[in-house]
Amino acid sequence: MSLYRGLAPVLQSISVSNFVYFYSFHTLRRFTPKGNSAIQDLMFGILAGSINVLMTSPLWVVNTRMKLEKNNYTSLVEGLGDVYKKEGVHGLWSGTVPSLLLVSNPAIQFMVYEALKRKLMSAGYFDNYAAFLVGAIAKAIATTLTYPLQLIQSRLRAGTNLKPLFRDMKSKPTTMFRGLEAKLLQTVMTAALMFVIYEKLVRLVLSIMRVKMS
Q1: What pLDDT shows up at residue 4?
Q2: For the chain, how big is the Rg over CA atoms in Å?
Q3: Which membrane topology describes this protein (predicted)?
Q4: What one-character-per-residue DSSP string does 8-40 give?
Q5: Using CA atoms, how far apart are residues 104 and 42, in angstroms rounded to an integer?
Q6: Could you give phi then psi for residue 182, rounded to 5 degrees?
Q7: CA distances from 68 to 73, 93, 125, 140, 151 (A)
Q8: Does the predicted model carry a pTM greater than 0.90?
């Protein structure tokens, strides 16, 4: 069971985080003229990601610490209360600065996804399989480009000193990409499945609302 330590809080946090991100992203797109571009998608992704980080950072701080043996929180609420009691507001939002820098990850992911999606749709080739493949490609690119920031973010959320990491980086720069393979295996498949479900849900909601897809 140790392999699934903190699974329930992770699922709760992912649900909240994805809702905030997707809602913010599409709300921003609604207030712009028709004809979205890759640059617009990148900017909307950055803004939506910033909103998401500021609202959900405490959830991910607790999630990170729940995965450590020394923190045996039974729920997110208990973890939030304990971190606040011991470290205050600063503890709940620890790692927020690199997290804000990391909004580039979903922003790049969405920019690549939407750009490839538009090309495939114009050619008439976009379906569930294409959504899966494009989602995987977009996440792989975004994760590889931003992995060093993710590594720093994880260390800060866990309350770990960054000095050993920076010391190792000076002698061996590839240290900043340690564990990238495992991260890609974890995130690429998740993102690919997420985009397939996302496309299906969008079509379902629009069909219920009787809105014609462009």
Answers
A1: 62
A2: 19
A3: Multi-pass membrane protein
A4: HHHHHHHHHHHHHHHHHHHHHHHTS-S---HHH
A5: 8
A6: -65, -40
A7: 10, 18, 45, 27, 16
A8: no
- Report CA dihedral (8, 204, 188, 133) to the nearest 10 degrees: 160
Q: Sort 133 into a burial class: Cβ within 10 Å, 0-12 / 13-18 / 19+.
A: middle
Tokens of 134: 């494009």
The amino acid present at 53, given as its one-letter code, is V
Helices and strands, counts by H and E, the chain: 8, 0
Which tens digit of pLDDT belongs to each residue from 183-212?
888 889 888 998 898 888 878 876 776 655
Average pLDDT on 155-171 reads 71
Instruction: Name the nearest CA neighbour of 152 among 139, 163, 142, 141.
Output: 163
155 closest CA partner among 104, 94, 66, 105: 94
Return the structure tokens found at 103: 């909004």
Q: Judge contact between 143 and 188, C-beta under 8 A.
A: yes
Token reading at 187: 């995130």
Residues 6+ apart with CB under 8 A from 55: 20
The conformation of residue 79, written as its DSSP 8-state character, comes to H
Best CA proximity match to 94, nearest among 59, 124, 135: 59
Q: Are 45 and 57 in contact (CB under 8 A)?
A: no
Average pLDDT over residues 95-122: 85
Reading the block at residue 122, the tokens are: 């114009």
